[in-house]
Amino acid sequence: MRDRAARVLEANWTGTSTVPSRTLYPHQWSWDSAFIAIGLRHVSSLRAQLELETLLGAQWGDGRIPHIVFNPAIPLDAYFPSPDFWRSSTAGRAAGAPLTQQTSGIVQPPVHALAAWLVHRADPALSRERGFLARVYPGLAAWHRYLLHRRDLGGAGLVCVVHPWEQGMDNSPCWDAPLSRVSPAPPRTFRRADLEHGAAEDRPTDLDYGRYVRLAMDYRDRRYADGGGEFAVEDPAFNALLAASEHALARIACELGAAGTARHARAERLTAALVERLWDPEAGLFFCRDLRGAGGLIRERGISGLLPLILPTLPRDVVAALVRTACGPHFGVGDRVRLAPSYDLEGPAFDPHRYWRGPAWFNTNWLLERGLNLHGEHARAAGLRAALLEVAGTSDFAEYVDPYTGAGCGARGFGWTAALTLDLLGPREGTL
Length: 432
Known about the structure:
Blueprint: H1 2-11, E1 28-29, H2 30-40, H3 45-56, E2 68-69, H4 83-86, H5 88-91, H6 112-122, H7 124-130, H8 132-150, E3 160-161, H9 164-167, H10 176-179, H11 206-221, E4 233-234, H12 236-255, H13 261-278, E5 279-280, E6 285-286, E7 288-290, E8 297-298, H14 316-327, E9 360-361, H15 362-374, H16 378-394, E10 400-401, E11 408-409, H17 415-425
C-alpha cells in the first residue's frame, strides 16, 4: 500500500508541485496541495516543503491563496474555467494578483498552516536547514489575515465563502437554497471539460454548473472585491480548518522565536463563534449559515457539520453530540457505511455517486478520523482508519467512493487519496 500510494504521487509530481489528477485536474489546487504535502512528508520532506512553497509563490498581494495555480504548459481547453476565464492578472490587479502567473480568483479551505507544521515536524533538521518555516510564515499569516478581515461578511467573527467551490464540497445540497437565487450562465458561454473525464451522472448538473459559472463571472467582473455577491455562506468546516490552522500557526511562531499566545486565543474565539453561530444542539450538528436571503441556518446535514471535531477545545457536550450524529442514521459511521458520506444518508437529495451529494471522500474522512482520535474515540477512529485504507486500495485511490460499497467514482490515482493513505500508514501525532 505504501509503495502503491507513493507511485501515485510520483506520477502526479510536476517537479515543483503535485496535480490532483493528470486527466481531470491537471493544475495545482490549493487545499489538494495542503493534503498532498501532509502525505508527501512520509516520502520526501523536501517535496512536501516545495509543494507548499510553490503554492505560496502564487499568493495575491491582498493575502488570498488562489484555489488554482495554472500550469502554462497545459492547453487552455484541458480544464474549465481556464486562465482566460479568470483573467487574474488583469481583473485581479487591484487585489495584487501575480502579473506573470495565471491563477483563479477564488480560494479554498485554509489547511495550509496545519500542513506546514506537520511537514516541519516530519524532518525538523531539513526544515531548519532550508529555513522552511521562516519562508512560509509571512505568507500564511497574510492568508489568515485576509480571511479574518476581508471575509467576515457577517461581522460575527466567522469567515464566509463567496462561491461553493471555495468551501471545497462543490456540489453539496447545502448550497441548493442559496444557489437557487442565482441566475445560471447560458450553456453556450462555457464548456464542461469535466464531462470528458467523468460520467455525467456523477458530476454536477448543467443547471448547477451554470450557477457556479455565473457566480465566478460576477466576482471576476467586480475585480475580485469581497462583499457584494449573491452568495455568502458561513461554513463550519472552512472555519474549523481556519481555527486548527491558527493553532498550527501559533506553534510555527513559537518555533521561530515569537509568541503564539495571540494566535491560540484567536483560534479559541473562532471555536466559540462556531458554536454560537452554527451549532444546533437539537440536530447534534453544525449547519451552514446563509448571509443572504433570510440569513438563517441551512438545515441540510452535510459532513462539513461534523468536521469541527478537529478542534481541541470544542465543548464536551458538543463533542459527544457530534459523535452520536456521526454514528447515527444520518451518517452511519461504523455501522451502515464503509466511509462517512458527504451528505445525509436520509436526506432528500442523497445520491451515493453524484459529486458531494452523498459519496464518501478521503480528506473529510481523514479529518473525521483525526477528530475522533483527538477526543478519545480511539476504537471508532481505528475502525474508520481501517476502512479508509481498505477502500483506498480496492478503489485504486479513487477521487471519491460509494459510501456503502466503497466502489470508486471520479478520477483514479487521485492525489490526496494516495497522500492521506500514506499519512494513515505513517506515525500518528497526538493532535492535528
